[in-house]
Amino acid sequence: MKNTVFNKVKYKRTSFNFTQEQLANIVGVTRLTIISIEKQKYEPSIGLAIKLANAFNCNVEDLFMLEGEG
């Protein structure tokens, strides 16, 4: 059974006043990747999840959670 992963990337990005383009540049991906992550259509690799967490000075667990958690 596949668990659904939810994220708070859009919430964190807007609270840091980053545009999608700025965040994409910080973590080394395209703006389309950020859009897909924010729309819950793409689950990033562990490496990208860590880069995103670092961009927001938080833990990966603060950004990503399994369905039914947090």
The number of helices is: 5
The succession of helices and strands, N to C, reads EHHHHHE
The CATH homologous superfamily is named: lambda repressor-like DNA-binding domains
CATH class term: Mainly Alpha
Poorly predicted sequence stretches spanning 5 or more consecutive residues = none
Sequence of strands across the biggest β-sheet: 1-2
User: In this structure, how is the largest beta sheet organized?
Assistant: 2 strands, antiparallel
Count of extended strands: 2
| Subunit arrangement of the protein | single chain
Radius of gyration: 11 Å
- Helix-strand makeup class: mainly alpha
**Mean model confidence by pLDDT:** 93
Query: What's the structural domain tally?
Result: 1
Give the CA-CA distance, first to last residue.
20 Å
Protein traits:
two-stranded antiparallel ribbon; 434 Repressor (Amino-terminal Domain); DNA-binding; Transcriptional regulator; 70 residues; mainly alpha; Cro/C1-type_HTH; DNA binding; Lambda_DNA-bd_dom_sf
Provide an overview of this structure.
The longest helix has 10 residues, at about 45-55. Helix 2 packs across helix 3 (about 30-40). The protein is mainly α and about 70 residues long. It has one domain (about 5-65): 434 Repressor (Amino-terminal Domain), CATH 1.10.260. The mean pLDDT is about 95. It contains 5 helices and 2 strands. InterPro entries: Cro/C1-type_HTH, Lambda_DNA-bd_dom_sf. Keywords: DNA-binding.
